[in-house]
Structures are given as C-alpha cells and as structure tokens.
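tokens incoming
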C-alpha cells in the first residue's frame, strides 16, 4: 500500500467514526427549521456556519459512541466493519478525535452562531454519550425512546441559530423528530434482532418480541402524525406542508400497521427494513415541505 493510499484510508477511517449517514439525516431537520424560524430564506452564511458546527458536534458524539460501543460492535455482524473493530483506528485515537471535534464545535458555534446554539449542541452530545450510550442502551428497552432526544436536538439548534431563543414551534418540531425516532429505529432492530440479542443489548424486539414492538411503532407513528398536523396552524405553514404531512403521515402509519398485521417473522423482518428506509424519506419530505412552504409563502394567515 502506498503512502498516499494509506493516508487516504486512515482519513476515511476517522470520517467513518462520525457516522456520516446519520449526520446527513440530522441536518435534514436543521436547515428547514432555520427557514421556518426566519419565515423565509435565512442568511446563507448563517446556514453554512450552523451546519458546520452541527456536523462537528454530531460527529464528535458519534465518535464517542463508537469508542464506548466497540465491544458491542465487535459482536454484531452489522457493525463488525467499523474502524475500532477492524483496528484501523486505536481506541485512544478515537477518544481524542471525538473530544477534539466536539470542543471545536462548541467554540465554532459560540463564535460564529451564538452561545445558546453551542450549549444545545454540547448538551445533546453529553445526553447521547452519557444517558443513551453509557446507560440506557445497555439497560433498558426504552433506550431509543429517551435517547431520541439527542437526535432531535438539531431542530432546536437550527431554531436558536436564527432567533437565539426557543419557541413553541421549535418544541413541536423537536417533538416530531423525538417521537419519529423510536419507530424508525425499532424497524431496524426487528431486522437485526439476532445481532442485538448476541450483544446483550435490550432492544425492544429482543425483550418484548416483534408484535409488541410493532404495536409501539404504530402508537408512535400516530403521535408523529398528530404533531405534524398540530404544527400546521401554530406555525402558519401553508398547504404544501399540510398536504405533505397528511400523505407521508398516512404512509408512515400504514407501514406500522403492515408490520403489526404480519405474523411471519421473516416477512416481518423484510417489512421492518422497508419501513426503516421509508421513515428516512418521511422525515426528509416533511422537513423539505417546511422549507418550500416558507419560500413560496403560502401560509394560512
């Protein structure tokens, strides 16, 4: 292996520690929230600065997560290829990397956005690392329910970046992502139930079984749908958003019904991974509709 190839491989190993695909999903909720907070197009420079700070913060949290979970990752087939398991990155390197980019994130947001956004970002990281990763993930079937608060924090960061405050609209958007997270993740856990069981991680499908998990997924999907509809009049959003919320909410809920009605474990597993994929589309379309509505200006008022 040449020096250039080896260097590139090392760089990508550190990038992998940040879980880029998860960060992409978090940013899907951040930027449209900024549109709603601004009630139009926010400053492009502010959006870029906020996205950079948020990316660093989420990346640091994910790197801490990989450092702590390296024992679990080594057991699960889905995660055996992660850098700390393969040895591409040493544990101490990962820990220092996580701490460094988290510190840079805080300073970045404080200096270029505002202190509230910086505090929210580092608070979300601390919650994800200490409450979810180190405690709940290994001890409770409600791990992803409570832990989902960290994944919903980018909404608050995006809102505070524009307004330097938190409002009812921001809390409702936070609630959308918070209640969306359990069915999204449980669908994946249904597919990888054996992996979680082997690693002794008490995900709901492992402890409670598929049917009870599917019922919980249905309950949460309905809650998400209701919150998205409540958001419409309160946030002065328009009919583009309303139509999108109705359609994707119906499909999101309908997918949970399909999983609940299916009794064959193999078929249920396939439906679970399909639901997991659609849940990402659901959140993306919903928040995209928020941004488009603000640009078009078709509010209810």
């Amino acid at each position: 292996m040449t020096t250039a190839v080896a260097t590139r491989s090392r760089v990508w190993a550190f990038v992998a520690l940040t879980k880029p695909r998860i960060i992409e999903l978090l940013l899907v909720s951040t930027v449209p929230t900024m549109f709603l907070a601004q009630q139009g197009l926010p400053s492009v420079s502010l959006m870029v600065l906020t996205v950079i700070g948020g990316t660093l913060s989420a990346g640091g949290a994910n790197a801490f997560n990989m450092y702590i979970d390296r024992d679990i990752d080594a057991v699960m087939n889905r995660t055996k290829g992660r850098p700390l398991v393969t040895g591409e990155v040493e544990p101490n390197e990962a820990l220092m990397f996580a701490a460094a980019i988290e510190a840079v994130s805080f300073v970045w947001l404080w200096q270029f956005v505002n202190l509230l956004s910086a505090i929210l970002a580092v608070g979300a990281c601390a919650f994800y690392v200490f409450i979810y990763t180190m405690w709940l993930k290994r001890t409770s079937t409600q791990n992803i329910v409570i832990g989902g608060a960290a994944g919903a924090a980018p909404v608050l960061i995006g809102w505070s970046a524009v307004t330097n405050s938190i409002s009812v609209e921001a809390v409702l958007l936070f609630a959308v992502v918070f209640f969306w997270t359990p069915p999204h993740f449980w669908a994946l856990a249904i597919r990888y139930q054996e992996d979680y069981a082997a690693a002794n991680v008490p995900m709901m499908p492992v402890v409670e079984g598929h049917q009870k998990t599917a019922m919980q997924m249905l309950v949460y999907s309905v809650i998400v749908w209701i919150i998205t509809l409540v958001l419409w009049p309160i946030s002065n959003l328009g009919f583009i958003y309303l139509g999108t919320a109705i359609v994707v909410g119906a499909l999101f809920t309908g997918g949970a019904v399909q999983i609940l009605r299916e009794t064959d474990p193999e078929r249920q597993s396939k439906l679970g991974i399909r639901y997991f994929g659609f849940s990402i589309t659901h959140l993306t379309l919903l928040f995209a509709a928020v941004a488009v509505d603000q640009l078009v200006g078709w509010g209810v008022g």
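note: The chain is about 85% helix and 0% strand.
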